[in-house]
Structures are given as C-alpha cells and as structure tokens.
Amino acid sequence: MDASIPQCARVGGLNRVQINCVMLQISKRIRIDETELSERFIRSPGPGGQNVNKVETAVQLRFDVGRSPSLPEDVRERLRRLGGRRIDSDGVLMIEAHRYRTRERNRADARARLAALIAQAAVRPKTRIATRPTRASTERRLETKRKQSSSKRMRRAPSDHD
C-alpha cells in the first residue's frame, strides 16, 4: 500500500471542519479529492487525561462511496462489501478514530484507515481456474469408498439367501 497523506489546512468551526488540500493518493490510479471527505470532531471515549471530557479529539471521517467520482465502479462495489456496518443506507462510509490523545494523530489514523480500506478494495480478487482431479487422486478416492463399503457390508446381519 502506497497511500500518502498530505498535510492539510483546517477551515471551519469547532466541530465541523472542511479540509483545504489537494489529494489523498491511494494508488497510481486512485486519488481521492479532499473535498470528498468530511470530518467531524467529537469527544473521545479513549485516553485523554484530564481533558478527556473537555476536548473533541476523536474524529468521524465520512466518505461518500456512492457519489465519489474518484473510484472506479469495481472498486466501489468491493468497498461497499468491505465496509460492512461502517457504510450507512445512503452509501456513506464513516470511520471513527479515537485511539490517540491528540486530534491530529486521530485524524491521520482515520485517513490511513480509509486509505488502507480503499487500497484493499482496489485489489482484484483472483479468478479461480477450474482444474480436473488427477487420475491418482480419483483412484485413491474410489479405493477409500470401496474399503468403507466393504467394512459396512461386513457389519450387516447375514442374509437368508446366502
């Protein structure tokens, strides 16, 4: 994964922040424009010391998967599957980060997790190539079946017509 997170400038109020930045580079063909991301800062349930109930250090990063022009359709579909419960009914992916005490580290953590998720969705799954079983494996399977059948036949009660 070669996701790079550029330095960005914050613009906006205390809890609602817009990002002024160029791009979030996921791979050579996928770049997310910063205007497609929205961040909201909330009080963190994690570590924070004396400031834990005073400062909004946790980050809610939102990314609209359905309306993003930056994602190819196949990546978008795989991202919807990988997102699971993090994607709401409107197709918006929400990542919460509250692992660290500072807003900046949580923000970088949320962006790194978004980049990792998109990079994972960008990898095409390998298609399975159907192969035939070898003659030896077929023979082994049939021999096992014959032995099993024979042992079960020996357990039966003797029949009258023998």
Write a brief caption for the model.
Helix content is 32%, strand content 21%.
Describe the structure.
With 162 residues, the chain is of the alpha+beta class. It has helices spanning 73-83, 103-122, 135-155, and strands at residues 9-12, 16-20, 23-25, 31-33, 37-42, 58-64, 92-97. It has a single domain (9-122), classed as Double Stranded RNA Binding Domain. The chain is built from 3 helices and 7 strands, in the order ββββββαβαα. It is elongated and about 90 Å long.
CATH class: Alpha Beta
Biggest β-sheet: count, sense, barrel? 5 strands, antiparallel
- Domains (count): 1
Instruction: Compute the number of helices.
Output: 3
Largest sheet, spatial ordering of strands? 1-2-5-6-7
Mean pLDDT: 78
Helix content: 25-40%
- Percent in strands: 15-25%
What structural class do the secondary elements suggest?
A: alpha+beta
For the secondary structure, the number of strands is 7
Using the 3D structure, state the CATH architecture. Answer: 2-Layer Sandwich
Q: Low-confidence stretches at least 5 residues in length (pLDDT < 50)?
A: 1-7, 16-20
**Coarse morphology:** elongated
- What is the helix/strand order? EEEEEEHEHH
Q: Looking at CATH, which topology would you report?
A: Double Stranded RNA Binding Domain
The whole-angstrom Rg is: 28 Å
End-to-end gap: 72 Å
List the helices and strands and how they pair.
Blueprint: E1 9-12, E2 16-20, E3 23-25, E4 31-33, E5 37-42, E6 58-64, H1 73-83, E7 92-97, H2 103-122, H3 135-155
Antiparallel strand pairs: 1-2, 2-5, 3-4, 5-6, 6-7
Helix pairs in contact: 1-2
